[in-house]
Amino acid sequence: MSLKNLREEVLEANLELVRRGLVLYTFGNASGIWREQGLVVIKPSGVPYETMKPEDLVVVDLQGNIVEGALRPSSDLPTHLVLYKAFPAIGGVAHTHSRAATSWAQARRAIPCFGTTHADYFHGPIPVTKPMKPAEIRKDYELNTGVAIVRCIGKRDPLHTPGVLVAGHAPFCWGVTPAEAAHNAVIVEEIAALALQTLTANHKVRPIEKALHEKHFFRKHGNTAYYGQKPAR
């Protein structure tokens, strides 16, 4: 990895959020980490996506100090840094205000697993954080948002639950790479929209059976996965 490559990966992840219709104007952000160097690349605050270039992205250390870049980093940077410190396996974070997923976050409801599309990506429901306390909002709000997410994940494997709804706010997603984080943000929005339509079709619907959920999740994840092609050697 190089800083140039990471800048390009993070820019592409941000642009993917735009292409998939997950962000409006300057809403949302994506970042990536170079763990060997302890550096994070993140979208600058309030810069339109259509004019953003790799050199506009901001490079910071894990304490949030700017290492490279003339622009201010995203205001959500402290949330991203908390996630990188808490989840060593992740390499990218994506935050959107996509409509369906944000609706569930505003309703303060976890998204149940109603079908196999959901089960392919999440080992369980898409969880929602507990509402933040007034003191947590007044001081260090963005940092405490990250703390709320980490608390919500608890003992779950963060790669088996690659996203969380922040109560009253919106989704944060992550992955092994910035591209995977953006991909998971797209998937969370699709799952959220499907769940809303499922409840409209049958308001008494229940989550799918555990056996079906486990089958679909573990055929894509873990040591027993068999979906797709084996990596080339």
Tell me what you see in this structure.
- With 233 residues, this protein is α+β, with helices and mostly antiparallel strands.
- The protein is built from 8 helices and 7 strands; from the N terminus they run αββββαβααααββαα.
- It has helices at 3-19, 77-86, 99-107, 116-119, 134-138, 141-153, 178-201, 210-218, and strands at 29-34, 39-42, 58-61, 66-68, 92-95, 163-165, 171-175.
- The protein has a 7-stranded antiparallel β-sheet with strand order 4-3-2-1-5-7-6, sandwiched between helices.
- Strand 3 and strand 4 form a beta hairpin.
- The model has no long low-confidence stretch (mean pLDDT 96).
Concise account of the structure shown:
With 233 residues, the chain is α+β, with helices and mostly antiparallel strands. It has helices at residues 3-19, 77-86, 99-107, 116-119, 134-138, 141-153, 178-201, 210-218; strands at 29-34, 39-42, 58-61, 66-68, 92-95, 163-165, 171-175.
